[in-house]
Every structure is written in structure tokens, then in C-alpha cells.
């Protein structure tokens, strides 16, 4: 047969594929980027006709539609984390990754199960190979199915971060619902103080073309205005023809939109315990104070990164420099909006710590002598948490 007419073969990664589909079903690949119609079934083989051509990427998710309605295939009832996934998780732990993302999270129980496993695997060892303490990786829940939306708040609360995976989500719910659901997820993340990542199809046209569509540029701006913490490219940087150009466009649009948004006020905090409300009040006050005084920066001294996340949520217009003595916390704070994290010992004497950080940032020309900064801390000389807020001028030695 001519090359154009010769059938192509693609494999799928779960058993029972041919039993889940029927003749006439529509198969959407990667959220509809490539579409097929089932023509016939021949044993384990499914013969399809391509009705919407496109780029067929490896490991893309499949969605079935019958008479225009999504079909819950048998693989949707399988465990979210497969046997191979557990092997990959062990590999990730051994290599000290900071975050592990789970696809198609349906309930918070999946997140809690994984977190329990990660905690047990990272418990301190007294001797033998791997002796010492390892920080457990954080868990990122990918919201990409209608099942996830029914338990959204519980999933967000149980996770360390949440990803809005719009490609697969758009094949599970009506397309017109995607913008509304995206905003619901970003709002839930901000209310529960969890970083939110928005991914998929941000610059899809740049898989092939060097310039994005104007609609894609507007989409990026809309995500930034919804106060997501991070934007993530996928196919554009992994398989596209213009990976660096895509990143440059994404960054330029995000920065310009944030500049326009800089005059908006900080968001209000959510519900929580009395101690959490105290921390939220201090961080919100610090952000407001920095805006009113035109501070050059906000300094946050934190053990767990919690205070840094609260300041980040307020979206101040000045830089946020966060200092911690734990490398794992420092790396994870990179995900938080506006945070520039540093790792250094936190002295029992807070004045010595401030002096050291002032010298460090002055040496890097990130602050200048005489500038005003707002200082927030949840680090005290004892095991008790002492939260404080100060206004200081940058000096050579860090003194008041």
C-alpha cells in the first residue's frame, strides 16, 4: 500500500482496552489533540480511523466518548498508584526529589496513603546504608478528572501543592466549564494556602510555530490574574520545536501581567485555628506595611516555610527573601509565588541572623544600604514559636 494509506500501530498501557470500547466510539488522545473513531474490533486489536490529526505524543492519556458522552472505562476504576508507580516512587525517594505528582487523584485518601508511605520510608536510620534523616518529598495532586472535583477541598487540604491539568480535565468535563473549574481550583488553593500550578495548552501552537496565538497570550494573563503560583509548560518544552522561546514568552507575559496587577490589595485569609489566624494576620500586616512604606523587600525567617507561604499568598509588590536552615524546605519554597529562598543557619540570637542575611544580600546587590525592609519571623531562641514583625533599615552590620 502507499505510505499514506498504510495502517500505523500504537500500543496502550492497560489490559482490556478492546473490551472497554465499542464500534463508533470516539477516542480522544491528550485531551482531544488527536481524535480517532473506532471502526472495528479484531480480538485485542482496535481498528481506528483518524478523524482529527495531530501530534501523537508518548504516554498521552486516552478518553472515550460514546454518543458525545465520556465513558468511564475500566481503567478508571484501577488504583491511582500502580505497582510500577511504587517502584518509581522508591527511585524518587532514593534520589531525594522534592515533589512527587500523582495523576487522576480521586480522593484525599490517595494523597494520605502516599504521604504515609513517604514518611515511613524517610524516617531516620541509626546505622547502615542511608543512615540519617531524609526529608519526605511533597505531594502534588493533579486535578484532571470529574471525580477529583467532587472532593476538591479535601484533596487540596491533604496535598502540598495542586496542579490544574487542563488537557485531560477538558476531555472529562464540557469545554465551556474548564475556565470556571480552573478558577474554582485556584480559589480553593488560595483559601487553603496551597501552591497552585496551572498546566497544559498554555502555548500549544508553539509546538510548531515560533509565535503564540493572541488567545494563548490572553490565557496566560488570565491565569496570572487568578493568582496561580506557577505556570507549567509540558509538550512545548518537552517535544516542541521552540522550547526556549516558549519559556521566554511565558515569562514575559506573566511578568508584564503581574506588573499591571501590583496595585491590587492582598487577599483575605481563610478559616483556621487561633494560631494559624495569628500567623495569617502577621503576614498580611507585613505585606500591607511593605506596600504602605514602599519597602524594598520582605525578609522571612522560617523553619518550615509556612510563614513564607502566607506572605506569598498576600502577593506584595516587593521581593520576598525567605531564609531557612533546612535544604528541603528551601527547595520547596521555590514553588511559592514571589519567594526567593536562601539556606543558612538560623542563630539562636535573632540579631546575628539578621546581620548575616543583610551582609549576604548586600554582597549580592539584592538590597542596598539605607533601604527599608519588613522582617517577619517564626524562629525563636527556644522550641516555642515566636512570631514577630519588624521594620528595619539596611545597615552594614544589620543593626537597627
Can you walk me through this structure?
This protein is α/β, with parallel strands linked by helices and 400 residues long. It is elongated. The strands form three sheets. It has a five-stranded antiparallel sheet, covered by helices on one side. Strands 6-7-8-9-10 form a five-stranded parallel sheet. The protein has a five-stranded mixed sheet with strand order 13-12-11-14-15. It is built from 14 helices and 15 strands. Helix 3 (108-121) runs parallel beside helix 5 and helix 8 crosses helix 10. The model is unreliable at 126-130 (pLDDT under 50).
**Helical fraction:** 25-40%
Distance between the termini: 83 Å
User: What value does the Rg take, in angstroms?
Assistant: 24 Å
Helix-and-strand structural type: alpha/beta
Q: Name the overall outline.
A: elongated
Instruction: Tell me the fraction of residues in β-strands, as a range.
Output: 15-25%
- Low-confidence segments, ≥5 residues, pLDDT <50? 126-130
Please state how the strands of the largest beta sheet are arranged side by side: 3-2-1-4-5
Tally of individual helices: 14
> What's the main sheet like?
5 strands, antiparallel
The overall strand count is: 15
Instruction: Provide the succession of SSEs.
Output: HEEEEEHEHEHHEHHEHEHHHEHEHEHEE
Mean pLDDT, rounded to whole units?
Answer: 87
